[in-house]
Amino acid sequence: MRTIKRSNAIRKSTGEKIFNVCNTIFMFALCLVMLYPVYYVLVLSLNEGTDSMKGGIWFWPRAFTMFNYQYVLSNGLLQNSYMITIGRTVLGTVLGLAVNALAAYTLSERNIPFKKVMMTFVLIPMLFNGGQIPYFLQLRNLRLYNTFWVFVIPGLVNVWNIFVMKRFFQDIPDSLRESARIDGATHMQTLVKIILPLSLPMLASLGLFTAVGHWNDWFSGAFYVQTNDLMPVQTYLQKLLTANNISMVKTNNALNAEAAFRESQTARMTATSVKMAAVMVGTLPILCVYPFLQKYFVKGMLTGSVKG
Fold first, then answer.
1. Tell me, what DSSP letter sits at residue 113?
2. Tens digits of per-residue pLDDT, 254-263?
3. Which residues contact 135 (CB under 8 A, 6 or more apart)?
4. Which of 10, 127, 135, 231 is such that its CA lies 20 to 30 A from the CA of 27?
């Protein structure tokens, strides 16, 4: 039996072995190229600012310090920006998936009246828009301008997500819906108890994309709110990165910093070191979400590619 198994095993040729080795080396090098900039920012954020100005830092901090992170995290404005960003990300993702799922389930029904008309009205906003000025005026007329809900309500409907959900819902056998209706289930019960549990990979993928979009959005905070209390963390970081010095941080943080840390530590801090720490503070939280959704993310990316 061992002889038969060995003879039936697929043997790789020399060319295939060389290709696999080269492919592995290439993918490893590609990963390094993509990960090193993030690692370099991390190294600079953990090094004293005045020492970083000398150059020559590539792989590890030369003068290790956590003062940059302590200085940034003790900023009251940044703490408030974090709460705004977390709130809009959670609400925007959950409500967005709910609204899009309801629309997709309706459009996935085969016998609904005026289906083509509704599909046309859904498709038009995906291809055309009125422009930035009409959009701004509409937000002001709806009294969303300079409010927290300007980050949530305008982005609830995503036409692309609706079409992806609709396609996924249509691939679910109609017999499941029919059996639920025979048992007396309503459309809402069918959606919540049958359709959505079978669509977890797709929902996880779209939810991840939606959450990343909310977390990384700085444009809305820069143009649709006026008060610093409503500024998302990415808008705050964008303003910090475009500043030539750390006066923006010191203005909001000087009392806390001077009360908590020595003056000599503040003197060794530079605008670049604070910016690097702020970038890592704004980037790491959303990166930590990926490992928990990875198994669903891979399945969701293959949605519609293989049909049984």
1. T
2. 445 444 444 5
3. 129
4. 10
